[in-house]
Design goal:
One of its GO terms (molecular function) is O-methyltransferase activity. By secondary structure, the chain is an alpha/beta fold. The chain contains 8 helices and 12 strands. Helix 3 (about 65-75) links the parallel strand 2 and strand 3.
């Protein structure tokens, strides 16, 4: 039997779908969604819907050649590339872990995971090299277009991916990424480093979600950054940004209104 919460959730998703479809009908060109660390493919039904409606192009990067071929087979209209994205154009050491999703260009810090059951799934089972490309190089050579939206799940390498955009980062509207509050990989940048980098490039933090705790401790976060909606209102970026907010269910902003000595909470439109 469907509960009240189930019904509310279904109706909320339906409203988001209708809003995204209405907004996307007015686009002059498909949106570009770059998925760095595309293991298992995109996870949003709204992304898939926009892709199927030919209003979005998905470009995924997945180092594992077998997984990359699997993604191509199940999503033939998307583009999947079997190399990594980072801050250099070169071959780089790559660490394959016992749980494939934890593999990274950075070596796992097993000492930091001591005493946790998670430690074994970060254990390195093989080390090799993998090709890495800067995103601004890929754009300059015409390999990929400039992304409208960016998703990064690079196991501690997110900061390096962002650095590899160079000046092209200014053309991105919304970013979703996974980050950590303490090191799980040797030499990795943490949430505060990413926050400062994106803030200095004109992004604001829009939402923070806990992925899952390491026992009792919150270690990993999924965070969402975007351009300031007030700065893009009425321009060519306004509609795509609203679509990004709806895709990721970003909550509306809130502020206060002062009238006749009273303080009222006001909800801002997304």
């Amino acid at each position: 039997m469907e509960t009240v919460l189930d019904l509310a959730s279904r109706n909320h998703l339906k409203a988001r779908i209708q809003a995204v479809l209405a907004l996307s009908e007015q686009l002059t060109a498909p949106l570009i969604y770059a998925d760095v660390g595309a293991l298992w493919g995109v996870d949003s039904p709204l992304l898939k819907m926009l892709r199927d409606q030919q209003r979005m192009k998905i470009i995924g990067f997945e180092i594992d050649p077998a997984e990359c071929e699997r993604l191509k087979a199940i999503s033939p209209n998307d583009t999947y590339l079997a190399f990594g994205v980072g801050d250099v154009d070169a071959m780089r050491p790559f660490y394959v872990t016992a749980f494939a999703a934890n593999s990274s260009f950075l070596e796992p810090d097993l000492d930091a995971l001591a005493g946790l059951p998670h430690r074994d799934i970060f254990r390195v089972v093989s080390t090799g090299t993998a090709p890495m490309r800067r995103f601004d190089t890929l754009i300059a050579t015409g390999t990929v277009p400039v992304p409208t939206f960016l998703k990064i799940d690079a196991q501690g390498f997110e900061y390096n991916v962002l650095r590899g955009f160079g000046a092209e980062l200014q053309n991105v509207l919304g970013i979703r990424l996974e980050t950590q509050l303490r090191s799980l990989y040797k030499g990795q940048a943490l949430f505060h480093d990413i926050y400062e980098l994106l803030k200095s490039n004109g992004f604001m933090l829009r939402d923070v979600r806990i992925t899952y705790p390491f026992e009792y401790e919150v270690v990993e976060l999924e965070v969402f950054f975007s351009r300031d909606p007030r700065h893009v209102a009425g321009g060519n970026s306004s509609r795509p940004l609203r679509i990004w907010e709806l895709i990721h269910d970003i909550p509306s902003g809130r502020t206060i209104g002062l009238e006749n000595g009273r303080v009222n909470w006001l909800t801002l439109p997304i």
